[in-house]
Amino acid sequence: MERIKQILKQIKPNSVIVDIGSDHGYLGILALKNNQAKFIYNIEINQKPLDNTITNLTKHNLLSKTKNILNDGLKNLELDKTIDYCVICGMGGNNIFKILQDILKTKNEIKNFIVIPNNNSSIVREFIKLNDFYIEYEQIIHYKKNFYPLIMFNKKKGLKVVSEADLFFGPYNIQNKTKEFKSYKLFLKNKFDKNKNLLRSTKNKNIYNLINNEK
């Protein structure tokens, strides 16, 4: 729920939102109740979580303000509205990368993307770099013992992904150096220091060197 709260902070009132991987539909329910959304597309690849979404929307009398679709992301799917925000949360970076690639093959008009990868956020930023997007906002969500990167990007404004450090940590995070971002880097450094075997991975070794070499 903490991740949903942080996503909602970035969403402007009366938006049209597509939530890919809606699960129980909580994002849409809260956005509609707070008047941050006027319409929600909930997309699920499996029937059971889609049924959960529909059940919860019905309980809150919000079903008429949504369209609930069984599909693999937006693959081969054309929506009938312009999308203000496409949200993808609760899955790994590789899956998000694939979903984003599929979206580019459609004619859907999407103004902003908000993603929270559970892992491998660098591949998401690689997609952003390769497809000429800007990162408008980033943050590290520190919830319990876990760290989650929130990345909001679009085609109009923000920071470009340029360097290797940008790929691993995010240009907005590097520029703003929040308390949560500093805690995240310290967490990674301690993790690598305690288990040097992790540094056999080229990716981990590069991350470790970037952390140690940062001024």
How would you describe this protein?
It is a single chain. The chain is of the alpha/beta class. It is built from 9 helices and 7 strands; from the N terminus they run αβαβαββαβαββαααα. The chain has a 7-stranded mixed beta sheet, sandwiched between helices. A hairpin with a 2-residue loop joins strand 6 and strand 7. Helix 4 (93-104) packs parallel to helix 5 and helix 8 packs across helix 9. It is globular and about 55 Å long. The two termini are 35 Å apart. The model has no long low-confidence stretch (mean pLDDT 93).
Short structural summary:
Helix content is 42%, strand content 26%. It has nine helices and seven strands, in the order H-E-H-E-H-E-E-H-E-H-E-E-H-H-H-H.
What is the topological layout?
Layout: H1 2-8, E1 15-20, H2 26-33, E2 37-44, H3 47-59, E3 66-70, E4 83-91, H4 93-104, E5 110-117, H5 121-130, E6 134-143, E7 146-154, H6 164-169, H7 171-176, H8 179-194, H9 202-213
Parallel strand pairs: 1-2, 1-4, 2-3, 4-5
Antiparallel strand pairs: 5-7, 6-7
Helix pairs in contact: 1-2, 4-5, 8-9
